[in-house]
Amino acid sequence: MDDLLPDGGLAEVLQQRHSGLGSPMLVFRLAIAVTVSWLIALAFSRSPLAIFAPITTLLVVQSSPWSTLGLSLQRILGTGIGVLAASLWVNLVGLTWWSFFIAVLAALLAARVIPWSVAGQIQIPIAVVFVLAIGPASMGTDLWRVLDVIIGGLIGLLAVYIYPPRPRTEPLEGALEAYRDALITVLRRIGDESGNSAATLPNGTNHEYIDDSRALRVVAESGRQALTKLADSARWNPRGRSVLPRLQSDALRLRRLGGMAVQIRGIAGAANLLYDRAEPARLSADDFRRVVASLAELAASALGETGEPVATADPATVQQLSDRLAVLIRNAADALTPQGEGPGSSLESVSILGRLDHVRQQMMVFALAAEDEE
């Protein structure tokens, strides 16, 4: 599941991006944190302008400690690099139009190669522009600018870490339900529309369910993003300890739904070429629709009905439906090759039945895994 869950390492935390202002509670927390940061900077900082600390707090506070840590590190490191480099440069050559241009160009080129998020990369040229605009100063003053940024980042972390928001599992569950519903919908459309066209479809014209099958990738990405967001919100969060143990299970559910989606997309592509074409398929449309309808019934039992949580209702019922479907698929395959004929003329029909049987087995694995977890 490593490719679905963020690894939590330094490289990953430095890729954290700003996710917006979020809820009204986060806005209120942010306003308090920025004000406190400004007051502390006024009291302790030796910088001429006490702006670096509150600006840093304003930019780094997020809805979770983990994302706030990532943005704080990027802000602190980026500002430190930019301030120190610009201070050395402006004190060495002075401030002219050409020294300003060279400094900004060098900062942008350096930021471009650093493997951070765009928000982190842009901190380097922003710090350079600030230093150049304010003008030459002593090295002590420049160091205090960096310290102000560190103060702002630490206050931002404290603002989120002190009673942080509880990770919400509902968005992930909703994404998994949407993924499951999309899979079942595509299956049912494949069964309903294949062989039911009023006219033969010309080459290059697809059944309407092809667009829905392609859209499964978008639904899958929404599920992956919801899982990543839940993992990020639980990491470094004292109120997220109950969520961390379930992440592997959630990633496995998403992975198994993804495996079914790959096969269902293949079934859609094969059915699109087999049915409503000039050359009839060896597997009749009625037999195909019967198998697909049975698979959709199994999906509703193994994965949950549309609108319900993604869970297996009754493993015994799932087993009965699976066994009945297995017999149906094998009987349909046996009938494809009359005695004395080879399987070559039925290859496409046998292949699509094999895919349907593979999805049946995937659904059984999903149902049995859910039973084991209980």
TrEMBL record:
UniProt keywords, alphabetically: Membrane, Transmembrane, Transmembrane helix
Chief localisation class: membrane
Pfam families listed in its UniProt record: FUSC_2
Record GO cellular component, one term: membrane
Membrane topology, from the record: Multi-pass membrane protein
Keyword Transmembrane: yes
Stretches that traverse the bilayer: 26-44, 49-68, 88-111, 118-137, 143-163
The Integral membrane bound transporter domain, residue ranges: 37-159
Subcellular location: Membrane
InterPro entries, A to Z: Memb_transporter_dom
Protein name, entry field: Unannotated protein
